[in-house]
Amino acid sequence: MAERYTSFEPGGTRWLWQRLTAAFLVIVLAFHFFLLHFVNHADEVTFAMSEARMTQLTYFSLMILFLVTATFHGVNGVYNALVNQGLSGSRKTAVKAILGIASLVLIVQGVRTAIAWAGGVPI
Fold it and tell me: Which residues cross the membrane (predicted)?
């Protein structure tokens, strides 16, 4: 029988957070598809409608949480896939730093975009 290998530590928090963020992303994506493909059909959605949704604090907050969750889930998955492929030593440290910086840049730019889309911070 083949040995099962994973870079996640047994009982580790990164393993748990990867599963929790996956569950959250499935729920938010289901909400997205329901709202933008069943309530409003994609061809009916306009920039003004999207802007109006972003001015609502609950929707704005959900989108920010979605951004942070998706970023963590994706970067954590890529990092662990690379570790599973044998990444180690100084290359592992460099990849971790690059992915961390890229995550921060992505989140900061995403929040800036969301705030601009909402016409400033929503109330």
Answer: 20-39, 59-82, 94-118
pLDDT in tens, 65-87: 999 999 999 999 999 999 989 99
* Long-range contact set of residues 12-21: C-beta below 8 Å, sequence gap at least 24: 14/76, 14/80, 17/72, 17/76, 18/73, 18/76, 18/77, 18/80, 21/69, 21/70, 21/72, 21/73, 21/76
Half-sphere exposure of 32 (CA within 13 A, CB side): 10
% pLDDT > 90, the chain: 56
Domain count of the chain?
Answer: 1
CATH of residue 32's domain is 1.20.1300
Distance between start and end Cα atoms, the chain: 57
Cα→Cα distances 88→3, 10, 41, 93, 122, Å: 20, 19, 47, 8, 44
Residue 4 lies in a domain: no
